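In the laboratory, one determines a bound structure by crystallizing the protein with its ligand and collecting diffraction data. In a computational setting the workflow is compressed into a single prediction: the sequence and the ligand go in, and a structural description comes out. We illustrate the idea with manganese (II) ion.
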Amino acid sequence: MTKMKAKMKKSEAAGICSGINSRVPRELMLETAHMLENASSWVIFSHVNPDGDSLGSTGALFGAGLARGKRVRWLSVDPIPTKYLFLPHVEECETQKKYTFDSKDDLYVFLDSANEERGVEGLKERSPGTVVLNIDHHEDNTGFGTLNCVDGEASSTSEVLWHIMTEAGWAITPAIAECLYTGVAADTGWFSFGNTTSGAHMMAADLLSKGADPVKIDSCLRHNRSVEGARLWALAFLRIFRWGEASQFAMTWLSRRDFDVTGSVSSDTETLVNQMLMIRGVSLAVLLTEDSGEERMNASFRSKAGSVAAASVARALGGGGHPKAAGACLASPLGEAIRIVQETVDKIYAEWALADR
Ligand SMILES: [Mn+2]
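The predicted complex, in structure-token form:
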């Protein structure tokens, strides 16, 4: 209750910008737009394993850069998953594992990256004097940029970028609208997750009026699964096991072999962990996926209100993310990783139950 009051106060205190409610002060959004305007060359980075919001926001900024006569490059550490290939400008995106940050003429822009590790290898070792712009919506963003335009309460980075563009008076073309709509729709689970705010809907309404086609975007992203991916999901579903008080925790796992046997790829796991939260009585879902080659497991966590937060579990394992959607990487083989995650969830749950009940 006290927490809710504090949150309401924070929102009430936030400025109303051109009739649009945003937690980022108008001055900061304009400063961000100025930084972009003043640079003649932008290098834009998607985050590792890019998702809809990462590609939507970077694609939108790439389009805005072209429209503003900038020299623009768009880089991604990982290849763009096939289902996003419909997005405008993706054919211009270059895949690159490492980058050397040594130019003072380029503005390096990171979108949807909570920290340097989510960005690209080489970012931490950037030369002094290089300028990094960090636009994001993760609560745990480390503020690694020269300028940080971060709204931890925004539905998506695409929403933050939409505010910046709107405040700066930049034209939102149909291509930009399509990118931004993809970002907000993907990050809110098609306007169904807890981050589905009135701001997210207002933004969506504006983007529809500017040419985004929700039916096309939905059919490209949600009605476009491969049969190989469906078979991978079947393996994961068969292995679901539950534990904890009232069996409220659910976990499953996928090995490298599962991907080989089904012919699926790592991006086929996207939204799989969310499906497990649809099981009656499950409040926290865990998906463990074996990393290529090494004895490493990637863990994805999703949680519902009224139980331990996904982010608390992820943080205890050295990861991070949003309160209800988070991830971590474990340097352990599968069996050990399952045990570590179960023990961590039990420990965090015991602490949570003591504090919140
Ligand atoms: Mn995001």
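Residues 53, 112, 137, 156-157, 187 surround manganese (II) ion (CB under 6 Å). Keep in mind that any predicted model is a hypothesis to be tested, not a measurement.
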